[in-house]
């Protein structure tokens, strides 16, 4: 299993908003898959349609990159998008380890149905939790109205971040 790195252009431990996706895709794997080699990072700059949508939706939502951290409920890539129950449980434990490393965290956005599995465990955190659809090509093709609402859903974090006037 390969765990990609955090994107150094994002907020790191100073992030105020955690965007928790489902599971890394193949373009995060530094070892590459076939003729395509990934970046080794969970990044909105990766060479895939989901990363491109994340980049665009963050801009549309007006959320500065340095205030965010993008991660996954299951942080490792194991060559498949399939998620087993045990893998999900291990990922949930890792999510709480990550949250403990983010002292400025003010809000969490769970991106995608599988990421929403963490929600019941987040109640004790006291942090506001938001949900959105996943910006994957599958959602775009099958649920265009849901796809179009993603930037609006992500923008819900604004009132929970410091210096909100800087976002307008």
Structure description:
Strand 5 (about 105-110), helix 3 and strand 6 form a beta-alpha-beta unit. Mean pLDDT is about 90; it is low at about 165-168. The chain is globular. The longest helix has 15 residues, at about 85-100. Helices cover about 30% and strands about 15% of the residues. The strands form two sheets. The protein has a four-stranded parallel beta sheet with strand order 4-2-5-6. Strands 1-3 form a two-stranded parallel sheet. The chain is of the alpha/beta class and about 170 residues long. It has helices at about 50-60, 85-100, 120, 135-140, 145-150, 150-155; strands at about 5, 15-20, 40, 70, 105-110, 130.
Tag the structure with descriptive keywords.
168 residues; alpha/beta; four-stranded parallel β-sheet; two-stranded parallel sheet
Write the layout of secondary structure elements.
Layout lengths: L4 E2 L10 E5 L19 E2 L6 H13 L6 E5 L12 H15 L7 E5 L7 H4 L6 E4 L4 H6 L1 H5 L1 H5 L14
Parallel strand pairs: 1-3, 2-4, 2-5, 5-6
Number of helices: 6
Give the % helix: 25-40%
Number of strands: 6
Average pLDDT, all residues: 89
Share of residues in strands: 5-15%
Instruction: Please give the alpha-carbon distance between the first and last residues.
Output: 41 Å
What's the order of the H and E elements?
A: EEEHEHEHEHHH
Task: Provide a concise account of the structure shown.
The chain is of the alpha/beta class and 168 residues long. The chain has helices at 49-61, 85-99, 119-122, 137-142, 144-148, 150-154; strands spanning 5-6, 17-21, 41-42, 68-72, 107-111, 129-132.
